[in-house]
Write a structure and sequence with these properties.
With 362 residues, this protein is of the alpha/beta class. The chain is 31% helix and 17% strand. Strand 3, helix 1 and strand 4 form a beta-alpha-beta unit.
Length: 362
């Protein structure tokens, strides 16, 4: 049986040390102000989890206004976003937790843009293939947002390359229709992500955390992501000395076919990449047993999404013998106690079977 070492510290490439191997996943919550500044609701939500999770992430944070993908999204596209975030980072770091922000561009999902860019043309959804100059601007915006994050006091950033947003659109052989160096084979399709990571790493301090989140296989409507290509991308990211590669999975123990056999996705990526790059995973982790099993499969740390919403102190209480996760459907009466505002509550109602009074499972 695998030893439960989740509450033990973990050292990263950049030299930083997490107090445990449990992180709060970046969760969309739509609580930010209209101008992208941090709202008190989101501050309180994250503050409540400080001192419990080794690593806390904000929600996806847009790096430019034309990359914004939903109402209530946090921003780091301008210097005026920094002030409110400094208050947050001060609070979280005093608790002993590390805090990062997830940097994001929606690509064809940037619904607030009048001129959406991606790696293909589609007049039906009003998106077009970006020029090379525009891709350089995207990379520059990630660099500027990362520098603002460091100025705001974050311990690091995560580049959002998962879940169908801009970088995933480039990585997918279904959506990437380019015939230049940013398209074609996986070396070309991963170029935008890898060059962005390199540029960010060059422009922040050596001890500043640089993480990347990817979707390693096809999930839901996301297509064109092959495990063989994902393993290559993961290797290349490891060679760039990123700190944590975060895997966005529907189930943490999800399996895929590789060389005619079924393997857990986590195991394949852990086995094929260097140990200095830590592998993190989310995906239906509720109990301590789930988390330990994820470690046994190959994850270096685990990330909590839904369980982190209803259990602000999960890392602390989950190791107790009498701990029972609060599975959906959730009674909204608990939300105030766990720091979930009415705005966040309303967003959670859209997920089938999650909250009493919300959408029903199909």
């Amino acid at each position: 049986m695998y030893m439960d070492d989740l509450n033990e510290p973990m050292k990263l490439n950049c030299g930083q040390r997490l107090m445990n191997k449990i992180g709060l996943a970046p969760l969309t919550n739509k609580q930010s102000n209209e101008d992208g500044t941090l709202n008190d609701r989101e501050f309180e939500w994250l503050k409540m989890r400080g001192g419990h999770y080794g690593l806390i992430s904000t929600c996806a944070t847009y790096v430019s206004k034309d990359g914004k993908a939903w109402e209530g999204q946090l921003g780091l596209s301008e210097d005026r976003h920094i002030k409110n975030l400094q208050r947050l980072t001060d609070e979280i770091k005093m608790s002993g937790s590390k805090i990062i922000t997830q940097l994001h561009h929606g690509g064809d999902k940037a619904v607030f843009s009048n001129d959406k860019i991606s790696c293909y043309d589609d007049t039906d959804i009003e998106v077009r293939n970006a020029s090379k100059e525009e891709l350089q601007e995207v990379m520059n915006n990630y660099v500027l947002a990362a520098k603002r994050a460091e100025k705001a006091g974050f311990n690091g950033i995560e580049i959002h390359g998962a879940n169908g947003y801009l970088f995933t659109q480039f990585l997918s052989h279904n959506t990437n229709k380019r015939n230049d160096e940013y398209g074609g084979d996986i070396e070309g399709r991963s170029r935008l992500l890898l060059e962005t990571v390199e540029a960010v790493r060059r422009n922040v301090s050596k001890n500043f955390m640089v993480n990347v989140r990817i979707s390693p296989v096809n999930t839901y409507s996301l297509k064109g992501i092959d495990i063989e290509e994902t393993i290559l991308v993961a290797k290349w990211l490891g060679e760039l000395n990123i700190d944590i590669l975060s895997l966005s999975l529907r189930e943490y123990n999800m399996e895929t076919i590789f060389e005619d056999q079924n393997y857990p996705v986590i195991q394949l990526i852990r086995d094929e990449t260097n140990d200095n790059m830590k592998i993190a995973t989310a995906g239906n982790i509720w109990s301590r047993a789930d988390a330990v099993n994820a470690r046994e499969i190959g994850a270096d740390m685990i990330l909590l999404g839904r369980a982190g919403i209803v259990h602000p102190d999960w890392p602390t209480v989950s190791s107790k013998m009498n701990f029972k996760p609060y599975y959906p459907k959730w009674d909204p009466a608990i939300f105030q106690k766990v720091g979930v505002s009415k705005v966040f509550h309303n967003y959670l109602l859209k997920f089938p079977g999650l909250v009493v009074g919300g959408a029903e499972k199909r």
